[in-house]
Amino acid sequence: MSLFKKFFTKEREADLDKGLEKTKTNFFDKLSRAVAGKSKVDDEVLDELEQILISSDVGLDTTVKIIDRIEARIARDKYLNTNELNAILRDEIVQLLAENNTADLEDFSLPETPSPYIIMVVGVNGVGKTTTIGKLAYQFSQQGKSVVVGAGDTFRAAAVDQLKIWADRVGCHFYSKGMNTDPAAVAYETVQYAVNNKLDVAIVDTAGRLHTKINLMNELTKIKRSIDKSLNGAPHEVLLVLDATTGQNAIEQAKQFTAATEVSALALTKLDGTAKGGVVLGISDQFKIPIKYIGVGESIDKLQVFNKKIFVESLFRN
Q1: CA 146 to CA 191: how far, in whole Å?
Q2: Which of 15, 141, 221, 240 is the most exposed place for a label (fewest CB within 10 A)?
Q3: Strand, helix or coil at 37?
Q4: Mean pLDDT of all residues in the chain?
């Protein structure tokens, strides 16, 4: 491993530790109180753990699954002391993430597919969708990839301008037809632009809100079909951006978007701004969609690829 790679890994872990600080403080302060004065994990401790997981927005179904697994280990081993609880909880969370198609990513490398690689980005307004696109474009550009971002959110005031600012900041290509134009046409032409200019990546923004949910979901379906017409088999990835600070509301948004389009990857933003980072576990478990990116800070380089092992190690690191 090169010195740069070692440095980057340590730097990334430090950012993650800082980003998860509120979640860790909330979780482990409560857990410490739950096991205080106890030598073994009993029903009372498990009840407390269940409430702690739920309050961290892990979600009821996923919480019950974790508790059931710990109870099974207690039944098998006949005894579990409280000092072992952290290690066992950590193991069960890693296993849970492994079961839900979440791979351990090391960097922002793209799959081995013919260029251009097309990413359609979806999510409601305010989750950090356009910012995530800008940060993604930056990371791909840092890897030597040529990138175009397409301004398909043509209904929201200043959305086009916001994406243009990001493109200028990153130094990548930008495609737009302006405000109040057909988003499906923007998506189609963005892909054509990428093909004609032999670019490596096209990232297409989409609207986060129309007059009704039905309108929004129908629009996303139309955009996806338009991209496929522009390049057969595209988009190669439909990335749903969710705001971790909204907790269970993020799970509800995931339900709506996965019903409307074939979401293939998730990005969770603003983990540094919440004490409810457990939503990562609940979303992964419920939707079986891989978490690909997490946001742990506002600056341009604070979007990370998601690595379940590094994430869980950080979550349990004092």
Answers
A1: 13
A2: 221
A3: coil
A4: 87
